[in-house]
Structures are given as structure tokens and as C-alpha cells.
Amino acid sequence: MWRxxxxxxxxxxxLRQTLVLCLPVAIGWxxxxxxxxxxxSLVPACCNISGLDTPHKRFFKRLIxxxxxxxxxxxxxxxxxLHGIPLPAILxxxxxxxxxxxxISPLHGRLLSxxxxxxxxxxxxxxxxxxxxPPLLYIGGTLWYGLFNAFWFWLWEEQPMRETLxxxxxxxxxxxxxxxxxxxxxxxxxxxxxxxxxxxxxxxDLINTCYQQMxxxxxxxxxxxxxxxxxxxxxxxxxxxxxxxxxxxxxxxKLVEKSHAEAVIRWNARVISxxxxxxxxxxxxxxxxxRFEMDKPLQxxxxxxxxxxxxxxxxxxxxxxxxxxxxxxxxxxxYRRDLMADRQRRLPLLPAxxxxxxxxxxxxxxxxxxxxMLMFGSTxxxxxxxxxxYWILMTIMFVSQNGYSATRVRIQxxxxxxxxxxxxxxxxxxxxxxxxxxxxxMLAITLGGYLIIRKFYGWAMVGFTVTTxxxxxxxxxxxxxxxxxRLMDTLMGCLIAFAGMVWLWPQWQSGLLxxxxxxxxxxxxxxxxxxxxxxxxxxxxxxxxxxxxxxxxALFNSLNQAMxxxxxxxxxxxxxxxxxxxxxxxxxxxxxxxxxxxxxxxxTPALAERYLQSLEIxxxxxxxxxEYDGPGSDSNVLEEPEDLNxxxxxxxxxxxxxxxxxxxxxHTISSLAWQQRPHxxxxxxxxxxxx
Length: 691
Description:
Elements: H1 2-6, H2 9-30, H3 34-40, H4 43-49, H5 59-82, H6 87-98, H7 101-104, H8 106-125, H9 133-155, H10 159-181, H11 189-217, H12 226-242, H13 249-258, H14 261-284, H15 295-307, H16 312-330, H17 349-356, H18 362-383, H19 390-399, H20 404-428, H21 435-452, H22 457-476, H23 483-503, H24 509-532, H25 538-562, H26 570-597, H27 605-627, H28 651-673, H29 680-690
Helix pairs in contact: 2-3, 2-21, 4-8, 5-8, 5-9, 6-8, 6-18, 8-19, 10-11, 10-12, 10-14, 11-12, 11-25, 11-26, 12-16, 14-15, 14-16, 15-16, 18-19, 18-23, 19-23, 20-22, 20-23, 21-22, 24-25, 24-26, 24-27, 25-26, 26-28, 27-28
């Protein structure tokens, strides 16, 4: 029970965040200087948003860089303010200068938000502390934060990676259950496939996260991570064999009508999913797995395959289930992969600066968006004569997310949570409660808030708003005077962030669908060249297969987010859902061919070359269709693939032919979809005219 409690992801995270915040407060209270303890505990907010608690092989180097940026931003804010430079100009210049961090790497890009929050929070301390005190506070707070997290990660060794691996196994179990519960319902892919695509998306997202964690920790060179590295290799094998599909619903129906295959296949799937859930708990709670056997379900499936040799479904399921069973029994991967192939992009400062100065730079657009929002927020504060508008500016930073949908949801939760929290705080301020009791209640609220913040951000904001008001009450004894101004500041900050996400260089996912689709087709082409080419290295094939899954996942994520964006063309996105469905079919065929390529000869060189040429023609036709908006006859398309129906058809040929069929359908869909794609600028103009 103790092990399950302490290693639970939410409990472990909540304990870490609560202790790093509350220990300085407790020390300050015991030493008779509660004010400094409360101020010291505010620094971790900058560290959290900057990702300084991310385990990394350069953990302390990132802490030094982060603490230096926080202190420098704080010092510059004070010096420039004392020299009479307007706050909007300070925030604009500082944001544009720090924006280059996003060009160095995504992890460095998170330092932009933390540094800006440090500068903004300094506004509340100006005039109350000496000029050297806030920078020293940030340096000391970052040092404390880093040392505490280093100790925590040493104490709970490998826990972040264990949490990700546990989630991968659990999602694979859910995916296996869902897939084979729909065994006889795949005749209508438009209804049956979306739930499977959503679960497949979660699995690939978690695999990407685990790749990044292994890169940041250099886990392939660390002997202490060997067991987790092997568990990740096993997860990749499982994902490969669970995600493949035969896509012959007629043959499935025939086999189900002639035998009890449906019950046997689902029996195998249930055994596998149950074992995956056990392994997920074993990884998370540091337990050694017990023995596993699934001989009886596999024997029943093999018997059905022998009784119906003309039906490919039985042999297909037995082949993949037997491989899954072997992996689960031995807890060893079928073959070794290069897990460090997914190396994160990291540019040195000067090349990053040159790339940042390009108008095509995503980091430049992000920095410019923040700069304009903060400049507008501070200008609005000057107009309403708000001397220290730090709450407005911090709200803008906290609710601004990468996409429209995420920002909209965060704004709703933040605004409603703040409103409810202020109402609760206003009621509690009326009671005369001893300071020690207040601190204990704040401790309990903080722990509870961090327990639910990942899943219920709005409810967590209620508790954090109460603790913030009580912190202000303990610091200045006038917390009630902050209630209404804080509510107005929060609403203003949320409105500015929403307007900035909509109007300031928005990154509409519906506008990125074309590029993501083009990139996915390019990745499919690279994979097929390796699969049907002369050189078939298992390591290269494995990494290319993951690139295919990642490219399709990026396309699927764009489609899901585009469905929630304002003013989208519903017909266009309905067509795109069908296009993405056929893209998923191609991904699963590539998964199947990849597993076949390691175990027997694929095709004769001449036949493989002919199929590769036809597949490349089909892919290039789809790519050209993405680039031209006119009628299909006006675009420069290639010839139809030649007919390859000669002689007996092997399993690999069957997969290749189906890929060609999907490409023909995708080309037809593209001819209709791209001509009616949405233009958000036109939508905004129409909406403003209507109002």
C-alpha cells in the first residue's frame, strides 16, 4: 500500500511540488521571518514554467542558465523602470530579445516564459526591497529548487521515465481491447476507426515523450537505465504488432461465420491486455514481473488457422499474437534498435540568432505574439492608472498555450477558477484564524491542488487562488483589498491572451493540414524506399517506421485541433477525416511490411522495384494534388500505376496493392478537399461585419 501510494504519479508529483514550495515558508515561519519565506516560495513558479524540473543530463547547467536569466530579467526591469523607460517598451524589447531561446531548442524555449514571469513579478517588489534583493531572491530560489529536485530524483530514481513507460503499456492495453472488440464492426471504417485512431495517437505521443526522455538522460549509455531501456524496446515491439491490421472485413466475417474465431481472437486479446496492465503497474511500482504464459489461447488460434488455410485472418492473427506472446513471456525485444535516433534539435547561439531573424521563424512569431500582448496589457494598465499591472501580465503568460484550443480551455478554467477562489477567499478572510492554522490549511490546499492540477486545472485554480489571497494577507495584512482588482486583472489578462491567440499570427492547425499531409506522404515514401530497396537494416527500418507513425500522428493532431477552431469549413474537415483515415491504413500496412521484412525474403529485386515505382508514382500524384488548387486535369500528375496482377500474390504484394488503392482514394479526396479549405482571415472579416 505504501509503495502504491508513494510511487503513484499524481501523489509523487504533488508531494514534490508541495514540499519545494512549503519548506521555505516553514523555515521562514520557524525563524520568525515569514515574509521572506513566502517570497522565497514564489520563485518555483518561474522554474516550473521553464521546465527546470525536467530530468536532464545537463540538469545543473540548465539551472545555472535559468537562474541567470531570471536574475538578469529582474535587474533589467528595475534599472529600466528607475530610468523612466515606459513599461510597454521594456516588455516588448525584453520579449523579443529572449525569444531567440525558442530557436535554440524547444526546452530552451520554455525559459522565455519563466524569465518574463520573473521580470513581471519584480514589478510587485519594486520600492519594497533594495534593487539587489529580487535578483538575489531568484538566484537563491532557483538554487533551492534545483537542489531539492536533484535530491528528489535521486531518491525516486527513474520515476519520470517509469511513469511514461507505465502509461505506454496501459494505453497499449486499452488499444488492444478496443481494437478486437470492434473485430466484426470494421465494415464501416468511418464509424469504427476514429476511436482506434484516438488511442493510437495517445500511444505514439507517449512513445515520442519517452524518446525525448531517453535522449535527455542519455539513457542508452547509463547502466542504471538498462531495465527501462529494455522495457521501452519491448513496448516498441508491442506497438508494432498490436497496431497492424489485415483490413479485410469480408474475410473476417467469413471466418467468424464458419468458426468460433471471434471468441478465440478476443480471448487472446484479453489475455494480452490484462498482462500489459500488470506490466504497467510493475514498471511504475518497481516490481519484478512474474511468469507469463498464453499457450492455450495461441493453440486454439493456431487450430483455427489450420482448419481454414484459405482464409488469411487466422494466420495473420496467429502470427502477430504469437510474436506478442513471445515478447511478453521473455520480456526481451525481438531485435535491438537505435533508441537515440530521435535526437533533439539544438542550435548554438549564433546560428540560432540567424535563424531567429528570419520572418519564417516560429520562435520569432511566438515572441512577437507575447511581446504585443504584454505591451498591450501594460498600455491598458497605464490607461486605467494601474501602477503595478503584474497580475494582468502574469495571467497572460499563464493562460497562453501553443494552440487555439488549449488556450481557450485554459482561459475558461483560469477565469472560472479564479472567480470561485476569490469568493471562497472573501468568505474566509472574515474569520480570525491563528497564523499557524492558516499555514496548515494552505499546505493542505496546495497538496490537494497539485494532486488534481493535471486533470482538473479549473478546480486546482480555486485552491491556488485562495492560497494566493492568504499569502497577500500574510504579507501585507490587506488581502481583502486585492479581491476585486485581482478578478478584473484576471479577466483582462484572459481577454488579451484570447485576442492575441486569434489575431496575432495565429498558427491555425487547419491551415497546417496541407503541409502536415505533404510531410506524411514524404515520410511514407522514405519508408517504402527502405522496405522495398536493396538495403534492409533492422535498425534503420525500425526508426523509419516510428517516423511514419510520428508523421501521421502530427497530421491527426492537426485535424483534431482544427475541428475545434472557429469558423472552420465542416465539409473540408469531413473530407480530411476520410483522407486521414486512409493515411492511417497506409501506416498500418507499413507497420506490417516492416515486421515481415525482418523475418523472410520480401520480394524478388525486379518485382520489388516495380512495386516501388508504382507506389512512388501514387505518392507523388497525391503530393502534387496537395500543391495545386485547380481541377485534377490541370495539374501535372503522373501516369496511373501499372497493373501488377501477375502470378501468385504474396503477403507483401497484398499490402503494397492495398497501399496503392488507398493512394487512389486519397488523390480523389484531395481534388475535392483542398479547393474548399478554410481561410480564417476571411472568417474573421465576415464575423466582424456581421457584428
